[in-house]
Amino acid sequence: MRILLATLSAVVLLAVAALPASAQQAGVAEVESYFNSIRTLKARFVQSNPNGSIVQGTLYVRRPGRMRFEYDAPSQLKIVADGSQVTMWDPATRDFGQWPIGWTAASFLVKEPLVLSGDLQVEKIDRAGGGLEVTLSQARRPQEGKVIVRLAENPLVLRGWTVIDSRGNRVTVSLSDMQTGLQLADSLFRPDTPDPASVRRQAN
């Protein structure tokens, strides 16, 4: 389940052409501005996993620091960021985990402000299929994998992302029916889990 969380995300990559350096710099500023303009986001997602399984659900984001992946039944999995850490909880399997939000590949969604020259850095920007693909890695832990963010152009709109972990496993998330500027309740970003200590005791 750590792999699932660490590789939350995203369609096999298309043939791409790298943008020249000046265009990449302009592209970085445009992408930063786009994400920093989003305060809240709600969208449907389809997630393709390395084992071939496909799951779907609803994504909620409230910047800074808050997001929720609510998976459709029969899955009971929930992944919630409360502003400082990410909690994963599956009542059916009793899988439980918590991590600082900065350790997760999806942290680009909720960083405030998003600056693509600090903890997250841009490896390249490609133009593919009528949109942009922005490859990001963790500056301090580049060996732990990367995330390829996909955006439509004119105007920029987030379409999804692909996370590639250190073993080459890919998880792809594609978004649809995206809405921004909604009022999202605080309760969405509270992990509805039992006491973590009790979960760990029962798992042992």
What are the main properties of this structure?
mainly beta, 204 residues, outer membrane lipoprotein receptor (LolB), chain A, 12 strands
Lay out the secondary structure:
Elements: H1 2-6, E1 17-18, H2 21-36, E2 40-48, E3 54-62, E4 66-71, E5 78-82, E6 85-90, E7 95-100, E8 120-128, E9 131-138, E10 145-152, E11 157-165, E12 170-180, H3 196-203
Antiparallel strand pairs: 1-8, 2-3, 2-12, 3-4, 4-5, 5-6, 6-7, 8-9, 9-10, 10-11, 11-12
Brief synopsis:
The protein has 204 residues and is mostly beta strands.
Describe the structure.
It is a single chain. With 204 residues, this protein is mainly β. It has one domain: outer membrane lipoprotein receptor (LolB), chain A, CATH 2.50.20. The chain has 3 helices and 12 strands. It has a 12-stranded antiparallel beta sheet with strand order 1-8-9-10-11-12-2-3-4-5-6-7, with helices on both faces. A hairpin with a 6-residue loop joins strand 4 and strand 5 (78-82). Mean pLDDT is 82; it is low at 1-20.
Helix content: 10-25%
Shape category: globular
Distance between the termini: 17 Å
CATH superfamily: Lipoprotein localisation LolA/LolB/LppX
Overall SS class: mainly beta
**Uncertain residue segments:** 1-20
Number of strands: 12
Strand order of the largest sheet: 1-8-9-10-11-12-2-3-4-5-6-7
Amount of beta strand: 35-45%
Number of domains: 1
CATH class: Mainly Beta
- Average pLDDT figure: 82
The CATH architecture can be given as: Clam
Under CATH, the topology can be stated as outer membrane lipoprotein receptor (LolB), chain A
Spell the H/E element sequence.
Answer: HEHEEEEEEEEEEEH
Largest sheet: 12 strands, antiparallel
| Count of helix runs | 3
How big is the Rg? 17 Å
